[in-house]
């Protein structure tokens, strides 16, 4: 403020003090990661901490040092825990420090990635090009970074709908469709596909769930029969959604065979690769996703097996023209120019979003630092850890595998002779909750073919075999205690 100017800004009034506090935050962050094994995986918030999240709206200022202290006290100890080496719940990446720095630096850069002739936009394009190459797609393919797999799948399915609807959906809308559209996926598919088709106005009936085989892969004969049945009934088959790794068990559909079927039938071949598409870069197991490169579109998640800090998904589309024609739209306030800031193609032409964060930088920095080959080795490592855990379970008389281990997801449970399904579910749920609440490990649970199971998704670059051994020891210990309690009260 000079010469009586009362203009305000959000910049610090004391840059030196802010620099010192920022340096302390980085030091604390490094310590937080370095000592992650010394803390519980997860812990419940005490009531006073919960109450702090009902504090009134802050109308006035608070020194940043106090804000940071409150964050350290009320937020940091009660995180999800997915950076911990024994977090195997759902399907989370474990993050990486360089990616976190990338997020910070992206925020400092401040660019909006909807468009513009900027280095940030060039970085975004380069990251998408790298992911395109990693998946074996042609260099002419297009892509867009997204918040995650749900949005990445929705991009692919939207392009498929518009390309094969038989009418100009962008102009006429779905009410102009002459026939009902049908999309096909396995009964093991993620619910994101149903949600996407509902949002696209096609309704849940447009998604046909095809039976899976004993290995939880889509049954090709059942798929062919469903397509033929819909054609005979006057419906219009549009796309097959194959899984490069199902969420429940990690099963990988026969991508080559499904791709060949789609070409014969004139259907769009979409692959939900949010679980396992990145196996494509794993030297020991890339054969498991052979055929992925044949897809018309692929959804994948760098925030899973590339451990990009949340959030970072990606949709790739083989035909860039179809992709752009589905989503490009410019108002008079966003005209492309031959020169200046608005020169070049807008990234929003391939996305639902005009306002887009600079999520590419954390991927770019991590890939530059570590290299693709290391990420591939880490994927191989997790798959081998899944096989190790499976072998250890098979050795124990009280533990039972509930599904084949295809990649890094292991479904099993503790069983008591003579116990019915409801009792077994209650027993295993209690085992899971005790292990979670003790902060020992973080498994999740699921239902496999009508049977409850504990589910361990080893998607963590910090996990060791000793971590898995400790977890199984605790499963057996809690299971034995509960079994003895059942017998004494029975």
Regions with little confidence, pLDDT below 50 for 5+ residues = none
- Quaternary status: single chain
The number of distinct β-strands equals 11
CATH architecture of the largest domain: 3-Layer(aba) Sandwich
The residue-averaged pLDDT reads 96
Taking all Cα atoms into account, the compactness measure Rg is 25 Å
Strand order across the largest sheet: 1-7-6-5-4-2-3
Question: What would you say this structure looks like, in words?
Answer:
The protein folds into 2 domains: 101-370, Aspartate Aminotransferase, domain 2 (3-Layer(aba) Sandwich), CATH 3.40.640.10; 374-489, Alpha-Beta Complex (Aspartate Aminotransferase, domain 1). The chain is built from 16 helices and 11 strands. The protein starts with 14 loop residues before the first helix and ends with a helix. The strands form 2 sheets. A 7-stranded mixed sheet has the order 1-7-6-5-4-2-3, sandwiched between helices. A 4-stranded antiparallel sheet has the order 8-9-11-10. 42% of the residues lie in helices and 12% in strands. Strand 8 (399-401) and strand 9 form a beta hairpin. Helix 4 (97-109) packs across helix 13 and helix 5 (119-134) packs across helix 13 (360-370). By secondary structure, the chain is α/β, with parallel strands linked by helices.
